[in-house]
Amino acid sequence: MSTAEKTEILPTDIATETRQAPKRVRRSAEEARRLILDAAEKRLATQGPEGIRLQDIARDVGISHPAILHHFESREGLVRALIARTSAQFRDKMLGALQDRNGHQLEAGELIESVFEALSDRGTARLLSWMMLTDRLTEATSSRALMTEISNAIHSRRVKEAEKNAAPTPDREDTMFMAMLTANAAFGDAIIGRHLAEEAGLDHDGIIRFRRWFAQLLAEHAEHHDHQRKD
Amino acid sequence: MSTAEKTEILPTDIATETRQAPKRVRRSAEEARRLILDAAEKRLATQGPEGIRLQDIARDVGISHPAILHHFESREGLVRALIARTSAQFRDKMLGALQDRNGHQLEAGELIESVFEALSDRGTARLLSWMMLTDRLTEATSSRALMTEISNAIHSRRVKEAEKNAAPTPDREDTMFMAMLTANAAFGDAIIGRHLAEEAGLDHDGIIRFRRWFAQLLAEHAEHHDHQRKD
DNA sequence: GTAGATATTGACAATCATGTCAGTATAACA
DNA sequence: TGTTATACTGACATGATTGTCAATATCTAC
């Protein structure tokens, strides 16, 4: 059985008798790119940046590694495409969180929760921070003015709320700082949160409590300014 | 001049006439290790993780790359040593910030500022986040219970403050959350802060304002709880 | 069916980084 | 001054990974 098939049989025999149908799978370019990106993303999430190796990813998908190069030009092209896709997904999640499915706007606490949630996915956090570490901001054009956009949306709510309470109009920068703090904190949480929580002896509930606590902190801050006060 | 020295002269001649003293630099093991770590740190800061290549670092120091292997066993050994050193430095900075040079304790705002400051150094932030991204927490034993330690120090101050004001004793978890938030925010700031600030159109002063704003936010929160209130 | 486009492959090339080794130079010490 | 320990080097081995190329299989359109 060992050598029979390949050494004994002549080319003609191969063509006529022995040769089983090659059954090569052929996907659409789009489908192939998707599968490759999925595999790359998973590798990045589980093994970190060095886990993105063409051979390994090819094996995961069940193709040969030149196929990846065919679809993405180079390894760098693959990385760029992965960053672009993840950034876009993240952006969609964030913008989606601004309005729930009924078109209602989420309240601040839920919004904060969704920021943490979107980043807590291991792959996303790792990809974004890797992107920062390697100076690849360029390809993330899709999330360019994301924070400003969100900040503006929140600010207009605050202004309304303040008007309703006959309170002084909140400072735009104050809102921007709230957004920045949330972004920073969620990002930091995604990377060292687990470590810090473990060190502090916090279980899963503790982590949830922390997020609630943070949302509450910001809520109190906003209330303090946007509701009328005697001073 | 081109070939004269090396091709025409026989070994004996080399030994007697032409040979200039080899003047090989020989440092103490400690000194050599320090120089190598310095170079590696600089590479990491400017070029990211992939910048740590034995040949490049060797060239920076002015030695051959096997010399690095001689001192650190392997590339991985170098990375571990670098992580260990940076973690230890970070820890020292943090613990030092708890008490200024007069033995006085820094107040909260200054403490927060120093956390951000310590991490804003590009090398430190990059190294620590790279450490997280690649699951190398192990070698950072020196900063094991750092946050807990700091949190405890701050908490004891809060308790005193509350006693002084005849306010209810603050919750230990509340203080822990303040510490966690600060750590998360400083960490996130170190990685995406520059990007966010740019997007928001903040200049350097704006960044400083943000940190002050954050310190103020926490201060207000603590005051709100630790000073006696009518409710 | 035939033809053209292209997704896919195996084999190979080229580069590059880590690590090994035997030998050399230098400092410390007797 | 001679001996020893070891920091250091050049040349080479090794292995891994990206990238190239010609050939092949499969799909779509005519």
From TrEMBL, chains A, B:
Keyword entries, A-Z: DNA-binding, Transcription, Transcription regulation
Top-level taxon in the UniProt lineage: Bacteria
Region (Disordered): 1-27
Pfam families noted in UniProt: TetR_N (PF00440)
Residues of the HTH tetR-type domain: 30-90
InterPro entries in UniProt: Homeodomain-like_sf, HTH-type_TetR-like_transc_reg, HTH_TetR
DNA-binding region location: 53-72
One example GO MF annotation: DNA-binding transcription factor activity
SUPFAM superfamilies hit by this protein: Homeodomain-like
Transcription listed as a keyword: yes
Record carries keyword Transport: no
Name the record gives this protein: TetR family transcriptional regulator
Annotated source species: Parvibaculum sedimenti
